[in-house]
Amino acid sequence: MSNDSEAIELRISDGLPLLDRHARQLHRRYADLVEREELVSHGYIGLRRAAERFDPERGIPFLRYAWYRIDGEMMRAIQKRIALASAAREAGRQAVTALDDSADVLRDDEKRHRRRLQDYCHAVVSAMVAGVVGEATARASELGVTSDLQPAIDALHRALATLDPELRAVVERHYLQREPLRDIGESMGVSYATVRRRHQAALEALGEAFQPPEP
Amino acid sequence: MDESNEPAEREVFASREEFASREEFVSRTVEETMARYAALLPEDIALEIRGFLEDVLTTHPVGATLVERARPRVAPERSGEVAKDGSEESEEGVVRRRGGAG
Asked: What DSSP state is assigned to residue B73?
């Protein structure tokens, strides 16, 4: 069989049951991380690539060759999710550490306590979004396209644009370029304590500035 | 069942009731926060962030303290004395309410 378009489509058609079975199998293990449809769609990329590059002269049956490609693409989707989820939690831990004195005010009315809690939540979540965007951008070639993150990337940049330049620099360098706070402080010519204070102020401002896109 | 276990069991039950209400408040706070980000993120990432926020508000010393202070309190239905063993009202309290002498 040659590699004309009819042969390619035939091979794809032969590989579809394998693609479906493999997506179901992996989804059983990684259901928390990725939708089955996403596995199918990534696996399909692998199947198509296998159908296009298959060389019958090598003596390997097509489905064995395709399995390797399908599994590789599906695992890439899973690894992307694991990488982004880990980046989100890492950014969350950093934010929680930066906001360590948020509970230092003891006496306040219920309304202000609630406002403080809301601000804290938004600061943590917006830092996590920044962490995800940073990871996806830094590992774009490895993790693949980030079109599903585009709304978050846009919202983050809109929020960053409203921040004081000193605070914006801390978020961009720490979460997007992933520089340690100590290095940022040194290059800014300020002490570690100062850069930590700026980090906290930056997260509070970012949480406030982070808004969903206009409907 | 050993009678000496009774007060300890009541104590656990009381803290469970309180926990349910705190859980509900945490859950509502997380929902309200995440509403702003729902349209921006893929579902699985939003779930990861939601889970982390819930963990922080439930177990992190600062997050849990903020929740504790912001959480609405349910006013007691009535005032009165509560016996140390957890029973509703001490005998002394009942006598006083009925207008009897101590």
From this structure: P
Chain A residue with minimum CA distance to B37: A212
Between positions 87 and 116 of A, the ones with CB within 8 A of B are 88-89, 92, 96, 99-100, 102-103, 108, 110, 113-114, 116
Report the C-alpha gap between B13 and A41 in whole angstroms: 50
Q: In 3D, which of A16, A79, A82 has the Cα closest to residue A43?
A: A16
DSSP result, A187-215: HHT--HHHHHHHHHHHHHHHHHH--PPP-
Nearest CA in chain B to A212: B36
Asked whether A163 and A171 are in contact (CB, 8 A), the reply is yes
pLDDT in tens, B4-38: 444 443 444 455 556 568 889 999 999 999 999 98
Residue range A121-173, pLDDT digits in tens = 999 999 999 999 999 988 887 776 667 889 999 999 999 999 999 999 999 99
> Do the Cβ atoms of B42 and A129 come within 8 Å?
no
pTM comes to 0.75
Segments in chain A forming alpha helices (H): 5-30, 36-53, 62-98, 110-138, 140-143, 150-161, 165-171, 181-188, 192-209
Tell me the nearest-neighbour CA distance from A199 into chain B, angstroms.
17
Find the residue in B nearest to A122 (Cα).
B33
* CA-based radius of gyration for chain B: 21
Task: Collect all residues of chain A within an 8 Å Cβ-Cβ radius of residue B43.
Answer: 35
